[in-house]
Each structure stands twice: as structure tokens, then as C-alpha cells.
Design goal:
By secondary structure, the chain is mostly beta strands. It has helices spanning about 5-10, 115-120, and strands at about 20-25, 30-40, 50-55, 60-65, 65-70, 75-80, 85-100. Helix content is about 10%, strand content about 45%. A hairpin with a 3-residue loop joins strand 4 and strand 5 (about 65-70). The model has no long low-confidence stretch (mean pLDDT about 90).
């Protein structure tokens, strides 16, 4: 039987910041939820665009030549190859849509990188 996904309930199960969880997939894309606070490292995705939809709080996407601030209900697509550094206010959550091939921090080697197996529910 088909079931809807309650984003608020799913978010309640996420304890670590910047540790996305896959909640679904469509057309070769993963749909992920993440709680965010503070900042993440500079990184880029050479072959994939990255969709950020702010659900709660405020997310600032710093890029080398500009920045975008997302409030709840606002969406931004970071184009492939663009280096970015996300910053989040406390109590921020985001929905991400990414091709299945997207690595959490691109090619950046970091202890904060979360592999795909860790992102599975």
C-alpha cells in the first residue's frame, strides 16, 4: 500500500547535523532530509547539480563569487562544478534532491563526509 512521507516525523529521527538521510528516490535521484547547524566544508560536485529546499530555519549557500540565503519554502539549485559552503542557523532543516551518483562532499576527503550507506534509512 502506498504511504505518504511525513517530513516532520522523519526529521525527528535525524540526530546529527549535516548527516543527510535518504527518504525516497525518483528518476535516478535521491530525495534526502538533513538537519543543519553551523557550516560545512567548501566542496563541489563536478557532474551533478544539487537542489536545496529550506524547510525550517535559514540556510546560506556561500559560493566563491556570490551567496544565496534561503528561508523556509525557498529553493536554490547549485549548478554542477560550483564550489559552495553551506552555513545554517540553529534549527535549520533542508530537503535535498541529488542524482544517485552524488557524493556528500564531492571529491573532498573529510571525516565529515557521509557515504551513501550511512545515508540510507
Amino acid at each position: 500500500m502506498a504511504e505518504s512521507i511525513d517530513l516532520h516525523k522523519k526529521l525527528e529521527t535525524i540526530r546529527q547535523f549535516w548527516h543527510p538521510k535518504i527518504i525516497g528516490e525518483a528518476n535516478g535521484q535521491y530525495i534526502k532530509l538533513a538537519r543543519c547547524e553551523g557550516e560545512l566544508e567548501w566542496h563541489h560536485h563536478q557532474e551533478e547539480d544539487e537542489v536545496f529546499l529550506c524547510l525550517e530555519g535559514q540556510l546560506r549557500l556561500e559560493m566563491r563569487d556570490e551567496e544565496v540565503v534561503l528561508n523556509p519554502g525557498e529553493l536554490f539549485v547549485v549548478p554542477r562544478g560550483v564550489e559552495h559552503k553551506p552555513h545554517a542557523q540553529p534549527n535549520t532543516s533542508v530537503l535535498l534532491v541529488e542524482p544517485k551518483s552524488t557524493q556528500h562532499l564531492g571529491e573532498l576527503e573529510s571525516p565529515r563526509a557521509v557515504n551513501i550507506e550511512e545515508q540510507m534509512e
